[in-house]
Write the structure tokens for this entry.
Amino acid sequence: MSDSRGQLQGLEYPYSAAIMGPDLVRRNGQGEAHPEYSKDPAMSDVTPGRYRQLALNVYRVLLTRGSRGCRL
């Protein structure tokens, strides 16, 4: 792993899964970010706009680790 910030960087699994929580929801065709629901203490002072970008990146990394399939 070349990136010490992410434990999943560079790793692939046959199957992966992610459970999306209330921190990132879709309502009326729009994505809404709610950083107050994040369990990550580093996100406590992040604005909803910035949190949306960060959360989408985290979910993208988690959902692309499965080489054969993924469950959301």
Notes: The mean pLDDT is 84. The chain is about 20% helix and 25% strand.
